Amino acid sequence: MKSSTAIFYMILSVIAFSLMNAVVKCLSGFGAYQIVFFRSIGTLLFTVPLIVKAKIPILGNNKKLLFLRGLFGVISLTCFFQSLNYLSLGTAASLRYTSPIFAAIFALFYLKEKIKPIQWILFVIAFLGVLVIKGFGADVNSLGVIFAILSAIFLGLIFIVIRKLGDSEHPLIIINYFMVLAFLFGGIMSIKYWKTPNLTEWLLLLSLGVFGYVGQIFMTKSLQASETNIVVPLKYLEVVFMIIIGAFWFDEIYTLWTLFGVFLIMFGLLYNIYLKRKRD
Predict the structure, then answer these.
(1) What is the DSSP letter of 104?
(2) Over 80: is that where the pLDDT of 121 sits?
(3) Does the model's pTM come out above 0.85?
(4) Cβ-contact 186, 79 below 8 angstroms
């Protein structure tokens, strides 16, 4: 039952992050630092009042791990938005979705979570599905690839830190550390590159924080409720949701290769979850 709840939470998180990524695509005229800044503001408008109302100690218990979660989050988010300056959204997102593989490797060493050989094969199959869907053009920028891979590595570390924290910290405190650091870093770094948004852009920029908050809260709850290797691979579903959003929102057309990629992702994910639950 606990695993089922964790899976449900991660799917809700993926939907929210998919919508956030779609909004980022609409805001391509803004710099990465400014987007990080507004991403944090929208979420802090939720977390701070809720923390105060619930009278939760704002500094939490394990300050070191909380700080690391926030730091890794800022680095991952900034690297991803920076990669969009050099890569298409699809290519950057595809590279970032290698994060479950890094998370599984980190979990093997730091959390002692065992992974069967067949599960590694399924991770590879799911990752190949991402590549089939998005593909890699001949004009892929090396610096952009580095930024996207760095984002994936630090996202993998985030999963491990949250699992390490377990139930010892309230999800709001975990998210708040991340957003406060993002607010400070994004705000300072965007001063030089500031672009004043119009009314529509203001609403879109602030909505990043709303979608981000929903995504963060459910991702955190999911990781606290079950093993990393069960819920983290579900992040691949974000690609599927992005295809749906792209088709209806941006009028993108997807080929049979894309549908084949979706099949590979779903097969890798669902069979991996089946094996984990069968073992448990």
Answers:
(1) H
(2) yes
(3) no
(4) no
